[in-house]
Amino acid sequence: MPDTDLLTLLGIGFLLGLRHAIDTDHLAAVSTVLAERPSFLASVAVGLWWGIGHTLTLLLVGSIVLAWGLHIPAEFEVMAESGVGMLLIVLGGSLALKLYRERWHIHSHEHEGQLHVHLHSHRQQKDHRHRHWMTDAVRPLCIGMVHGLAGSAALMLMILTATTTMVSGLVSILLFGVGSIIGMMMVGLTLSVPVIYSRSMSQRLFVGVQGVASLVSVVVGVWMLVKLSPSVLGH
User: Fold this and answer.
1) Of all helices (H) and strands (E), which one includes residue 140?
2) What is residue 91's predicted lDDT score, i.e. its pLDDT?
3) How buried is 234 (Cβ within 10 angstroms: 0-12 exposed, 13-18 middle, 19+ buried)?
4) CB-side neighbour CA atoms (13 Å) of 175
């Protein structure tokens, strides 16, 4: 393959990675994680680890496909996409359950003849210990790996038709992954703005934003499963 063609392919792979980061299912998954971690630093970390997990899966699948010249069957793609749909439902449901357990509500009481109103939560918090960075990294890493598995079929098809060697194919996948990492870090920063802003305004608004993130995740997950149901039933 001429050098110019290879460079063009690599550039396209990087740009596709950037574009790939803003797919609806990716936004829904990452938003549920960010809704629980309202800070710009955490949002960058979530995007980074999601992208790393996504890229690791693509490189693993790509190595197998390119080494043995395999083609990913349509059934596998349907199963992987269904897995993403179920994952989104679980993520949204777990956030909703957390909000329910911490359920914030208004309490009023009288003190020295004056009525006071304040917010109250049922969350049991015995200490203020911070979680280890690895604990926060594992979740977005695993989510990214699941999404990478679901998106591997289309990417492998593009790589197989455009490359002639395993090295150029893996480099293309790697640059696609780098693009998706950068794109998801940018997405994380963007999505964290309403979360951080709502928390600074009021606890009720913050809980509302979390509720929206939970609902969107569940709705997108259900939508994916409904869309895929004819393919599942057909097989």
Assistant:
1) helix 133-150
2) 92
3) exposed
4) 17
Tell me how many degrees the CA angle 124-126-129 measures, rounded to the nearest 5.
120
Q: Please, which pLDDT band fits residue 2 given cuts at 50, 70 and 90? A: very low
One-letter identity of residue 125: Q
The DSSP element (H or E) to which 2 belongs, if any, is none
Query: Each residue of 196-206: pLDDT tens digit?
Result: 888 888 888 88
Q: Which residue has the tokens 């197998």?
A: 64
How does 156-186 read in b/e, with b if 16+ C-beta sit within 10 Å?
A: bebbbebbeeeebbbbbbbbbbbbbbbbbbb
Tens digits of per-residue pLDDT, 149-163? 887 777 777 777 767
Q: How many helices (H) and strands (E) does the chain have?
A: 8, 2
What are the tokens at 124? Answer: 């049991």
Please tell me the distance from the alpha carbon of residue 59 to that of residue 82, in angstroms, as a whole number.
21
pLDDT at 223 > cutoff 90 = yes
Bridge-partner residues for 119, per DSSP?
106
DSSP per-residue codes, 69-125: T----HHHHHHHHHHHHHHHHHHHHHHHHHHHHT--EEEEEEETTEEEEEEE-----
User: 103 φ, ψ to 5°?
Assistant: -35, 110
Q: Full-prediction pTM beyond 0.90?
A: no
